[in-house]
Amino acid sequence: MEELEPSELGTHEYWNHRYETEIANYSAHGDAGEIWFGDDTVERILRWICKTPEIAKDSSIIDLGCGNGMFLIDLSNEGYSNLLGVDYSEKAVELSRNIATAKGYNITYKQADILDDLEGTYKVIHDKGTYDAISLSENAKENRQKYIVNVKNIMNKDSFFIITSCNWTQSELVEHFKEHFQLHQVVPTPTFKFGGKEGSVVSICIFKRI
């Protein structure tokens, strides 16, 4: 399978600069920044989590590449309480903490590199765009494999791994993860037709550990 061309979106420097700008915007205007993949995608993921009876309100949930932390704030608004956001950008973590503190939320955010070992096990592992960014890094194939193994290591047989991607299709994600994961469910997203073929702009897949 072909790798994607490296991009600045796969660099630590890009994201630190991006979130440094968003910290300034939040301080000046109270703007929390961009919702990656849009509100509709977030609503679909939240709806799936809320309708899954195995995920209790106190289930441990980790957001990989939490960005501005808004996804966990949305989960907190739904009553979920055991929430951790990690990001390798210290500026993203600073922004997340600023927003959560200002709004009175008790959510933990910390700096962590997903390509290093992560600690603990979680009921829900959520990724919205982080695997995409890793796929745009230098040495992407090696980094993707590190990511996959590290995600597997923070899961048990009852965990759910929710991944949203705009760079990879459902079938490509299944192929990437097949050594350690099996597809549990697909969250439907809007489709389009072009040239007689139907596809989705965004793929949302739920995996279980093999």
TrEMBL record:
Per its UniProt record, what Pfam families does this chain match? Methyltransf_31
Tell me the GO molecular function terms. protein-lysine N-methyltransferase activity
Return the CDD domains for the record.
Answer: AdoMet_MTases
Keywords associated with the record = Cytoplasm, Methyltransferase, S-adenosyl-L-methionine, Transferase
Q: Which GO terms describe its biological process?
A: methylation
Compartment(s) of residence: Cytoplasm
Q: Which GO terms describe its cellular component?
A: cytoplasm
Which InterPro entries does the record cross-reference, listed alphabetically? Efm4/METTL10, Methyltranfer_dom, SAM-dependent_MTases_sf
EC?
Answer: 2.1.1.-
Per UniProt, residues of the Methyltransferase domain are 57-183
The answer to keyword Mitochondrion applying to this record is no
Similarity remark: Belongs to the class I-like SAM-binding methyltransferase superfamily. EFM4 family.
Q: Give the protein's biological function.
A: S-adenosyl-L-methionine-dependent protein-lysine N-methyltransferase that methylates elongation factor 1-alpha.
Q: Which HAMAP family match?
A: Methyltr_EFM4
Name the record gives this protein: Protein-lysine N-methyltransferase ACAOBT_LOCUS4420
What does the organism's lineage look like at the top?
A: Eukaryota, Metazoa, Ecdysozoa, Arthropoda, Hexapoda
